[in-house]
Backbone:
């Protein structure tokens, strides 16, 4: 490996071109992945995150780094082009460490301004130093970021970071068995900094479920605080209709960036829902109801309804369409209620117990029409069919209630206000 200086401050490498073994630029430095270890051992620099010229981010181990200088970073060997996903126990230098508050062993409170790594063995790098900006407390508890810059060995801030991480780990463990609404309430009660730390440590699926229970302004703030790739992963785990509502609340440029980073199939569902007005059946529906073909038996239909990932509302009805059975489906034939399916022989075809009296909603049906529809048919889920008579989704009663309640009802719920104390400021005539 080419000679390097004894230590390198990583902010100097951010955005540097990355060259492959042939000398061609493949992307630029986006971040470095570190792993904290027991106190007394320096954090290991596992590798770097490269943003390819195609905007995809990948991980490259430090062992692949051939040379580093002020103008470029060169790699050796074959590059794995799979998308980078941050793993549990990994810390991103620029996204997770910079601007983090620490306390030095002599009691100085400061923000991490930069960190330096050093090659300890052949292509084995460790974080050895931190550049800190001392914080100064002024009147009215305002904290300035313009304090004195100073450098310390990493060991002088390691205990402070370990304490923060242990507190976050304890909180994540406490949330592990909670229902999504309870996790959301816990996040709501945290400071913004702690909320972000805990959110970063939660699994994508658990965080996505909790996101859907938070007030809209807190959803936007928390999503914006996450690393962009992680934010896209969380959106992928959310129900498409909830992800669409959140996307619509984001700045256009940020929303487009997230959609571009999502898996194409998940992004397509969201983009499809974005074409409908919010307070319509099309805007409220999920594109993933339970659908079976006309020759499916009742046993096969019930097997799909038993899927634990299907919500109770969605599991109350199965829709029958001609192939394809993904939305937008083939010709819509009708729907069968789960109660009726349970009363009939499993070998019968589900299409023989269709509710002939149930007329589908159109995607442009407004909130008043949708709410009356649910009251008329005593339903918890309703089919939405387009002019080509294709099933394009289904509206569930929880989505209808979500749009009928006051805009700030989730925030009131977080603050402990009971439903009978809520103002009646949105009525459906």
Residues:
């Amino acid at each position: 490996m080419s000679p390097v200086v004894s230590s390198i401050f990583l902010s100097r490498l951010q955005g540097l071109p990355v060259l492959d073994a042939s000398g061609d630029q493949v992307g630029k430095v986006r971040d470095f992945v570190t792993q904290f270890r027991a106190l007394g051992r320096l954090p290991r620099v596992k590798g770097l995150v490269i943003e390819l010229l195609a905007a995809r981010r990948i991980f490259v181990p430090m062992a692949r780094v051939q040379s580093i200088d002020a103008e470029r970073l060169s790699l050796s060997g074959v590059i794995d082009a799979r998308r980078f996903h941050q793993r549990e126990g990994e810390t991103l230098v620029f996204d997770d460490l910079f601007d983090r508050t620490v306390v030095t062993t002599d009691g100085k409170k400061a923000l991490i301004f930069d960190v330096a790594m050093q090659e300890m063995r052949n292509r084995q790098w460790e974080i050895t130093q931190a550049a800190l900006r001392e914080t100064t407390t002024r009147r009215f508890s305002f904290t300035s970021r313009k304090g004195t810059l100073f450098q310390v060995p990493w060991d002088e801030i390691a205990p402070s970071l370990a304490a923060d991480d242990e507190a976050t780990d304890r909180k994540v463990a406490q949330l592990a068995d909670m229902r999504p609404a309870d996790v959301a309430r816990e996040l709501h009660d945290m400071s913004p900094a702690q909320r972000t730390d805990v959110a970063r440590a939660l699994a994508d699926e658990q965080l996505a479920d909790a996101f859907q229970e938070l007030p809209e302004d807190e959803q936007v703030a928390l999503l914006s605080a996450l690393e962009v790739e992680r934010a896209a992963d969380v959106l992928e785990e959310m129900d498409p209709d909830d992800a669409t509502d959140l996307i619509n609340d984001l700045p256009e440029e940020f929303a487009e960036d997230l959609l571009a980073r999502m898996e194409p199939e998940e992004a397509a569902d969201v983009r499809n829902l974005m074409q409908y007005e919010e307070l319509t059946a099309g805007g409220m529906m999920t594109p993933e109801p339970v659908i079976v073909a006309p020759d499916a038996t009742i046993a096969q239909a019930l097997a799909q309804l038993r899927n634990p990932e299907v919500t109770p509302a969605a599991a109350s009805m199965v829709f029958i369409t001609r192939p394809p059975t993904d939305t937008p489906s083939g010709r819509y034939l009708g729907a069968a209620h789960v109660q009726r399916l349970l009363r009939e022989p499993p070998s019968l075809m589900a299409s023989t117990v269709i509710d002939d009296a149930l007329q589908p909603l159109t995607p442009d049906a407004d909130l008043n029409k949708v709410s009356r529809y649910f009251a008329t048919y005593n339903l918890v889920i309703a089919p939405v069919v387009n002019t080509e008579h294709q099933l394009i989704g289904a509206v569930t009663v929880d989505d209808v209630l979500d749009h009928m309640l006051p805009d700030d009802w989730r925030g009131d719920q977080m603050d402990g206000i009971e439903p009978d104390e809520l103002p009646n400021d949105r009525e459906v005539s």
